[in-house]
Amino acid sequence: MPDIAATEIEQLVNQLEIYNSAYRNGKLLISDVEYDQLVEKLRSLNPSHPFLNRVEPESFESKKEVRHPVPMLSIEKAYFREALERFINRVKKEAAEIGILDIRFSVTPKLDGLAGRDDGEIFASRGNGEVGYEISSAFEKGIIPLGGRGRGIGEIVIKKSYFDEHLSGNFEHPRNLVVGIINSDKLNEFAVKAIEDRAVLFVPYAVLESWVGTPEELVDQIEEVTRKLSAKTDYPMDGMVASVTDEAVREHMGSTAHHYRWQIAIKTKGETAVTRVEKLVWQVGRTGNVTPVMEVMPIFLSGATIRRVTAHNAGKVRDEKIGIGAEIEIIRSGEVIPKLEKVITPSDQMELPRFCPSCNSSLQWENDFLKCMASFCPAQIEQGIIHFFKILGTAEWFGIKTVQKLVEDGYDSLVKIYTMTEQDFLDMGFGPVQSKNLWNAIQVSISKPVEDWRFLAAFGISDLGTGDSRKLLSHIRLEDLGDVRKEEIIEIHGFGEKTGESIQMGIEKIWDTIKHMLNMGFTLEKTPLEYEKKTMGSPIAGKGIVFTGKMKKGSREDMQVQARKLGANVQTTVSGKTDYLVCGADVGDSKIRKAQIVNVKIITEEEYFQIVGSLNSTS
What we know:
It contains 23 helices and 25 strands.
């Protein structure tokens, strides 16, 4: 990519980060529409930029960090009937594997606010999904917990009718004011008035009106269900959420690193428009895939001017003859990401690249993708380094412009970058402050504790994202992966023949780098091994445990952490796979009744500590 383009991208990302930081702090510098337009400009310049491929984490710097006992994952989305049907068929298949044929789904509105988790003691923001921020001060400011405290996951929202009548002239979206309330010690006049008028609430999903029906009814009636639930919901919404009701099916299906597999967000099809392709740009990703981006005749769609749209892959360009002059229909689903919907008039000027736009190596076909196989390809090296810092999450300052400069000056590997001194950065032309920040960032990333599965996933091995890295390291130690064979991998539930072979080859290819990085002394938190859980002699090893109510000797979160260390399978809901329901004070009748129905042993907090052999605090 030309230096001018790289500079423009770096400046744009810096601008977006400033606006986003201000937005997260409730200080609106630009409107949502203007912000989206800048995001789309970045997408048009570089669709694979890390800024676009992560959930923008909420950061409340003055708040205490809180690790969620169970990750607050995102939700898979379905915009079309076919996608919903595929989801349902997948649920049916996996439910049948455990002998469950009678399946029910619940549907609730998907609220569009600030996500949070309230266990009655700790109220935490979503954060990055793994770690959030303690925001219980929200209730002290006057935000109303609908249905009382301790009702689980929900959203902080402003009543839609109130916002439309009193605030729409001053704020683009209700969420902007919500974030300001959470993040500011001194509330503005609009926030004070909204709170006084009891219009700002934390709405747990558990208290929302829902619909329950069979898979067939879900498909046939979803439009009517959406209409009825929307009419009864006076909060900002972003579609509907369908969830499997059976706890055993939920537990069997589990989750990916991104979303729970038993749940899906049902969203309406986005606004579409027709435009023409003016140019096709090819860009190189971390794994060598060379992907096409269409520069199109600018068109205004869903509040933003669209200039560039992804063409998915080279196979689609080839098969549908996408090139200069092609007339295409694009869609902006969820009013965020513009995508190619269909080709209306093919181009007679379609041309596929033969050489990598970054290193000029010959390209090869791999299924529908054109791929650069060169290990020295600068674009792949740059994207790989950026991916490492992004996934590791403990080092800042390494943006695309910085990484490009490092690679250009010969620091083209993680090992080289991690051995740099502050003087090395100065000698490259970085300023004194930036050089110090870059060197400090490296030292912090080595010393700050991070999970070993996150460290492994950061190397970008094919088929080994964060979820599968955690699964793999629960059976094989990180330091032993250098000799791992595909046969060992496919013995682990969830890995198949192809992924096992792919992971083995990927680890072999990068093992020397992993060993070098391990020898630098990263502070890694080890994933507990499954066999250790079963053989460690703990009285609760392998037991399913649910903690509920207000505890005396420690927070529920601390007790969950301790139980996991002792090998227990900590759960959030009572099911047939639960062995103990540990009750503190103020426990709801529903959990007690559920435990009695499925013959779960109900014990007090004191009885739990007697079982584990400790009457001390869990802190």
